[in-house]
Amino acid sequence: MLRIQALDVYHGYVQAIRGLSLHAKEGELLAILGANGAGKSTLLETLAGLHRPAKGDILLNGKSIAGKPPEYLVRQGISLVPERREIFHSLSVWDNLLLGAFHRYRHAKQEIHSDAREILEIFPALKGREREMAGTLSGGLQQMLAIGRGLMARPKLLLLDEPSVGLAPMVVREIMATLARLKNTGVTIILVEQNTRSALRVADSVLIMERGRITFSGSSGEIMADSTVQQAYLGRRVRPAMAL
Amino acid sequence: MHIADQLLQLLFTGLTLGSIYSLIALALVTTFNITGILNLAQGEFVALGALLAVSMYAAGMPMAAAFTVSVLLVAMLGGFLERFAIHTARGASGLTLIIITIGLSISLRGLALLIWGTETYSLPAFSKGGPLFIGGAAVNPQSLWIFGLTAITLAGLYAFFELTYWGKAVKASVINRAAARLVGINPHTVSFLAFTASGALGAAAGIFIAPITMTTYDMGFMLGLKGFVAAVIGGLSNVGGAVLGGILLGILESYSAGLISSGLKDAIAIIILLAVLLIRPEGIIGAIRERKI
Q: Which neighbouring-strand residues pair with B214?
């Protein structure tokens, strides 16, 4: 579904991604872990078209999309939920959701209204707040809104950058449960997380990044089962997973 | 004339001018919010709108048709200039883009000079009849047209931004350009729309004011400058502030010209601009109302 080949990305003169290659299958949830500055967010932003790679290629279903602008990539089925949420603060919750489906509004006006109602079913905490300004919501609700807006695009590839930052554990569990349900519908998800335990619970496979490179690649089961790998790559032991 | 009547008379004059400044400021602020570009050719859109309408009316076209065609032509010119000059220079610094708009302003003024010469033109008032007396003030019917048409234009813009999906998409671009791109809103399309709309707004303002002012090839410079001052009073990024800034500037200009000296008519805009930039660069109204659009 997604194949990245020998990708190099720079921030000015600083190389943020170094020769990175990876492959994600349809319906796979791939977690990317690593310390701050490892290049995780840059990778997601490059996939969403916010950075132009200096070298390498990105193939989505066999088609090269490297260097294409974000508005084109949304139409190809890539949706990024950025770390800082980037919701439209002075628009209502409902308008934020509807704008998430901007690229298909012209052809599916009625459909996007029913999609927005479905999102409210997925995140019932947003129900009854449709007319409120998005900027007045709590951090958790804003995160749900950002994810909901991302889902409104009906993505084939959903990119989530630190969705659990600053959220209460209960909200994090809700979001992770939603992601688990979503991948079962065939959506490929790449999840960048600092909250290792939560990410490992839902991920099928895991990459660990360090200074722009992948230093570990395997299944979440492999990491969970091997405390040596955890110590070596994550610098700590991850407690056993709890049921969702 | 009694002083109260004189003050009322000057207030109506100020509101008339202020309405025009509001429209120009609104076009400047909308373009600035969406594209980050201060379009210093905005005044030329005003002049071209008025001059085109004058020529078309003189050629026998009915006033309503001359108005519509002029507004459409200047809107198309705005869109064309965005594609031709702004879009091709995308990625250039803000200063470079401003310099490009100055170049466009000079070019358009030169073009207007070639076509219309240095003569002064005028349009007839939109309706016949003598002045209306409100209180002790005589109000020119054209002023009422200007109030009404400005109000309709503002209401139309409000409805577009608040009630339509496309309006909300444009608003989203203003609020957060990067996030708007992430949901698929093309900033280049929005920039094109902003320049097209600013052309239409400028032309409409020029035609509204043409019956009560001298229409010349270079009228856009001073009107554009006053629109800019109104936008600065409003905080430059505040649409409501731009409208109020325009009204405030029109009233101050009218009172200073009427009560102190007519020589102050244009100078007052420069004095206010300097005062705002020195004392309150975030704008008088912009500081009070932070909300954009």
A: none
Contacts (Cβ under 8 Å, ≥6 apart) of B125: B140, B141, B142, B145, B211, B212
Quote the minimal CA–CA distance from B170 to chain A in Å: 10
Distance in angstroms between the alpha carbons of the first and the last residue of chain B = 41
Query: Which strand (E) or helix (H) includes residue B194?
Result: helix B187-209
Residue of B nearest to A155 (CA): B183
What pLDDT digit, counting tens, does each position of B110-148 carry?
999 999 999 999 899 888 888 888 888 888 888 999 999
Q: Which two tokens stand for residue A48?
A: 């969403």
**Is there a contact between B185 and A48 if contact means CB atoms under 8 Å apart?**
no
Query: What is the CATH number assigned to the segment(s) A25-50+68-77+155-244?
Result: 3.40.50.300
**CB-side neighbour CA atoms (13 Å) of A70:** 26
Helix (H/G/I), strand (E/B), else coil: A86: coil
- Please write the tens of the pLDDT for every residue from B185-207: 998 999 999 999 999 999 999 99
The secondary structure of residue B135, as a DSSP letter, is: T
A214 and A22 in contact (C-beta within 8 Å)? yes
Prediction ipTM score = 0.86
Residue intervals of chain A classified under CATH 3.40.50.300 are 25-50+68-77+155-244
Distance CA A118, CA A181 (A): 14
- Cβ of A88 within 8 Å of Cβ of B176? The answer is yes
Residue type, B278: L
Kindly determine whether residue B175 and residue A89, on different chains, have CB atoms separated by under 8 Å.
Answer: yes
- The residue type found at B175 is I
Q: Determine whether the interchain pair B184/A95 forms a contact, defined as Cβ–Cβ distance below 8 Å.
A: no
Nearest Cα to A164, choosing from A244, A238, A81? A81
Domains in chain B with CATH codes? 3-288 (1.10.3470)
CA distance A202 to A222: 14
Pairing of strands A213-219, A205-210: antiparallel
C-alpha dihedral sign at B267, B268, B273, B278: positive
* pLDDT per residue as tens, chain A (244 positions): 899 999 999 988 889 999 999 999 999 999 999 888 889 999 999 999 999 999 999 999 989 999 899 999 999 999 999 988 889 998 999 999 999 999 888 778 888 999 999 999 888 889 999 999 999 998 888 988 999 999 999 999 999 999 888 778 888 888 888 888 888 888 999 999 888 888 888 899 999 998 999 988 888 888 877 777 677 666 666 665 444 4
The tokens describing B226, both together, are: 């006053």
